[in-house]
Design brief:
alpha+beta, six-stranded mixed beta sheet, three-stranded antiparallel beta sheet, elongated
């Protein structure tokens, strides 16, 4: 799964103009669909200057964004990206991604299939754990930083009823490696997820405007 986007370049006044203008034809030659949409020295600043209308990661959303949408955070090829998708596209997203964490409804989908209580003892605890691991820069977390539950206070419960069944389920459904380590003492332990470059994970969150 790939997402398009834009790149903004900011430089000191009256510098790099020639470099940027010379770069445009070279970019279009290598990437035919690329183009330059705005150059301040040609298009002007406008009465309000340069304004960032949308930056999903920073909770800045354009006034034109439909509130009937969700924020999708994608972890793929060791990179993290955020986008907004309409509700009518969520079902298709769940079908094509390896793992989808629906933090809104506390549900989980693996290889397009929903996860049931027969697969995992607690979807809520699993979604909470994975989302916390993914959002951490080091992809690790201490058990005491998780919401208190039978799993977060016991390494044996966490490993036996959440971690190991999850690893097995992901590998069975996707055929891809999936690793979560759980080390430490029974009541004081750490969890760490190792992201497989071939595995794409998407977490769905409530739109900030909803």
């Amino acid at each position: 799964m790939s997402l398009g986007g834009s790149i903004g370049i900011v430089t000191p006044t009256n510098t790099k103009r020639t470099t940027i203008e010379n770069l445009e034809p070279r970019l279009q030659e290598e990437f035919p669909e690329s183009y330059v949409t705005y150059l301040s020295w040609k298009d002007g600043y406008g009465s309000d200057g340069v304004v960032v209308e949308q930056h999903v990661e920073e909770n800045i959303l354009s006034r034109f964004v439909n509130s009937v949408s969700v924020r999708a955070v994608t972890f793929e090829m060791h990179q993290k990206s955020s986008s907004l998708i309409s509700l009518d596209k969520v079902a298709a997203l769940k079908k094509k991604c390896d793992i989808v964490l629906d933090t809104i409804d506390q549900k989980m989908y693996i290889a397009g299939e929903s996860v049931s209580s027969k697969d995992l003892h607690s979807q809520t605890a699993t979604v909470t754990l994975l989302n916390a691991l993914l959002e951490n820069d080091q992809h690790e977390i201490r058990n005491r930083d998780l919401p208190r539950s039978a799993y977060s206070i016991s390494k044996n419960e966490m490993q036996g009823k959440i971690v190991l069944p999850l690893i097995k389920l992901v590998q069975q459904r996707t055929g891809k490696d999936f690793e979560i380590s759980c080390v430490g003492k029974e009541s004081d332990f750490f969890l760490k997820i190792t992201l497989n470059a071939d595995l794409n994970i998407v977490s769905l969150h409530k739109n900030f405007k909803s």
